[in-house]
Amino acid sequence: MGEEGFSGTRAAAVVGISYRQLDYWARTDLVRPSLCDAAGSGSRRLYSYRDLLELRVIKSLLDAGIKLESVRKAFAYLRTQGDSDIASATLVISGSDVLLCDGDALIDIVKRGGQGVLNLLAIGSVKTDLDASLVELGNVAAAPLASAQAG
Questions:
Q1: Range of the domain at 83
Q2: Per-residue pLDDT at 1 exceeds 60
Q3: In this structure, which of 28, 30, 31, 38 has its CB flanked by the most CB atoms within 10 Å?
Protein backbone atom coordinates (compact mmCIF):
# COMPACT_ATOMS: atom_id res chain seq x y z
CA MET A 1 0.00 0.00 0.00
CA GLY A 2 1.29 3.46 -0.82
CA GLU A 3 1.39 6.41 1.52
CA GLU A 4 -1.37 8.98 1.38
CA GLY A 5 1.11 11.86 1.51
CA PHE A 6 1.03 15.55 2.33
CA SER A 7 0.25 18.43 -0.02
CA GLY A 8 2.78 21.23 -0.30
CA THR A 9 0.62 23.54 1.80
CA ARG A 10 0.20 20.92 4.51
CA ALA A 11 3.90 19.96 4.43
CA ALA A 12 4.95 23.60 4.86
CA ALA A 13 2.57 24.02 7.82
CA VAL A 14 3.77 20.83 9.54
CA VAL A 15 7.45 21.67 9.05
CA GLY A 16 7.03 25.32 10.06
CA ILE A 17 8.22 27.00 6.87
CA SER A 18 6.49 29.13 4.27
CA TYR A 19 5.06 27.56 1.13
CA ARG A 20 7.34 29.84 -0.86
CA GLN A 21 10.39 28.40 0.92
CA LEU A 22 9.14 24.85 0.33
CA ASP A 23 8.61 25.64 -3.36
CA TYR A 24 12.13 27.07 -3.65
CA TRP A 25 13.67 24.00 -2.01
CA ALA A 26 11.76 21.73 -4.40
CA ARG A 27 12.65 23.77 -7.51
CA THR A 28 16.34 23.81 -6.53
CA ASP A 29 16.41 20.05 -5.77
CA LEU A 30 17.11 20.36 -2.04
CA VAL A 31 14.08 18.21 -1.22
CA ARG A 32 11.90 16.96 -4.04
CA PRO A 33 8.56 15.42 -3.08
CA SER A 34 9.01 11.67 -3.34
CA LEU A 35 5.36 10.68 -3.83
CA CYS A 36 4.36 13.09 -6.59
CA ASP A 37 6.42 15.91 -8.04
CA ALA A 38 5.00 18.94 -9.82
CA ALA A 39 4.65 18.30 -13.54
CA GLY A 40 3.51 21.66 -14.82
CA SER A 41 0.98 24.33 -14.05
CA GLY A 42 -1.82 23.14 -11.80
CA SER A 43 -0.14 19.91 -10.72
CA ARG A 44 0.31 19.19 -7.03
CA ARG A 45 3.35 18.00 -5.14
CA LEU A 46 2.87 15.20 -2.64
CA TYR A 47 5.39 14.75 0.18
CA SER A 48 6.04 11.56 2.17
CA TYR A 49 6.67 11.33 5.91
CA ARG A 50 10.40 10.92 5.21
CA ASP A 51 10.31 14.08 3.06
CA LEU A 52 8.78 15.94 6.02
CA LEU A 53 11.53 14.61 8.27
CA GLU A 54 14.20 15.83 5.85
CA LEU A 55 12.50 19.23 5.59
CA ARG A 56 12.38 19.55 9.38
CA VAL A 57 16.08 18.63 9.66
CA ILE A 58 16.92 21.25 7.02
CA LYS A 59 14.91 23.86 8.91
CA SER A 60 16.71 22.91 12.15
CA LEU A 61 20.11 23.27 10.48
CA LEU A 62 19.19 26.67 9.02
CA ASP A 63 17.82 27.78 12.40
CA ALA A 64 21.19 26.76 13.92
CA GLY A 65 22.91 29.20 11.58
CA ILE A 66 24.19 26.76 8.95
CA LYS A 67 24.30 28.30 5.47
CA LEU A 68 21.99 26.83 2.84
CA GLU A 69 25.00 25.86 0.69
CA SER A 70 26.39 23.78 3.58
CA VAL A 71 22.97 22.21 4.19
CA ARG A 72 22.86 21.19 0.52
CA LYS A 73 26.29 19.55 0.81
CA ALA A 74 25.30 17.79 4.03
CA PHE A 75 22.14 16.37 2.45
CA ALA A 76 23.94 15.33 -0.71
CA TYR A 77 26.27 13.29 1.53
CA LEU A 78 23.44 11.85 3.66
CA ARG A 79 21.57 10.76 0.54
CA THR A 80 24.61 8.89 -0.80
CA GLN A 81 24.52 6.81 2.39
CA GLY A 82 21.39 5.03 1.18
CA ASP A 83 21.49 2.25 3.77
CA SER A 84 21.52 4.59 6.76
CA ASP A 85 18.30 5.52 8.57
CA ILE A 86 18.12 9.31 8.72
CA ALA A 87 16.18 9.22 12.01
CA SER A 88 19.06 7.45 13.77
CA ALA A 89 21.72 9.90 12.53
CA THR A 90 23.32 12.51 14.77
CA LEU A 91 24.75 15.63 13.21
CA VAL A 92 27.38 17.75 14.95
CA ILE A 93 27.30 21.41 14.05
CA SER A 94 30.52 23.36 14.51
CA GLY A 95 30.35 26.88 13.22
CA SER A 96 29.64 26.42 9.52
CA ASP A 97 30.68 22.75 9.56
CA VAL A 98 28.26 19.86 9.67
CA LEU A 99 29.66 16.52 10.79
CA LEU A 100 27.98 13.13 10.96
CA CYS A 101 28.58 11.14 14.14
CA ASP A 102 29.18 7.56 13.00
CA GLY A 103 29.95 5.43 16.05
CA ASP A 104 33.22 6.79 17.44
CA ALA A 105 34.06 8.76 14.28
CA LEU A 106 33.04 12.23 13.16
CA ILE A 107 32.74 12.59 9.39
CA ASP A 108 32.98 16.13 8.00
CA ILE A 109 30.11 16.04 5.54
CA VAL A 110 30.55 19.62 4.39
CA LYS A 111 34.35 19.24 3.93
CA ARG A 112 35.28 22.62 5.34
CA GLY A 113 37.70 23.44 8.13
CA GLY A 114 37.05 25.89 10.91
CA GLN A 115 36.42 26.37 14.58
CA GLY A 116 33.29 27.17 16.47
CA VAL A 117 30.83 26.06 19.05
CA LEU A 118 29.64 22.47 18.76
CA ASN A 119 25.91 21.82 18.68
CA LEU A 120 24.39 18.37 18.38
CA LEU A 121 21.34 17.70 16.27
CA ALA A 122 19.98 14.25 17.03
CA ILE A 123 17.67 13.66 14.10
CA GLY A 124 15.61 11.27 16.22
CA SER A 125 14.54 14.28 18.33
CA VAL A 126 13.62 16.16 15.15
CA LYS A 127 11.48 13.15 14.21
CA THR A 128 9.75 13.29 17.61
CA ASP A 129 9.04 17.01 17.12
CA LEU A 130 7.70 16.34 13.63
CA ASP A 131 5.38 13.61 14.96
CA ALA A 132 4.10 16.00 17.64
CA SER A 133 3.40 18.65 14.99
CA LEU A 134 1.46 16.14 12.91
CA VAL A 135 -0.71 15.17 15.88
CA GLU A 136 -1.18 18.81 16.87
CA LEU A 137 -2.32 19.72 13.37
CA GLY A 138 -4.83 16.87 13.29
CA ASN A 139 -2.87 14.33 11.27
CA VAL A 140 -3.18 11.52 13.81
CA ALA A 141 -3.48 9.12 10.89
CA ALA A 142 0.14 9.93 9.99
CA ALA A 143 1.48 7.98 12.99
CA PRO A 144 1.54 4.66 11.06
CA LEU A 145 3.64 6.42 8.41
CA ALA A 146 6.50 6.65 10.90
CA SER A 147 7.10 2.92 10.50
CA ALA A 148 6.93 3.23 6.72
CA GLN A 149 9.72 5.82 6.49
CA ALA A 150 12.31 3.34 5.20
CA GLY A 151 11.56 4.25 1.56
A1: 6-148
A2: no
A3: 31
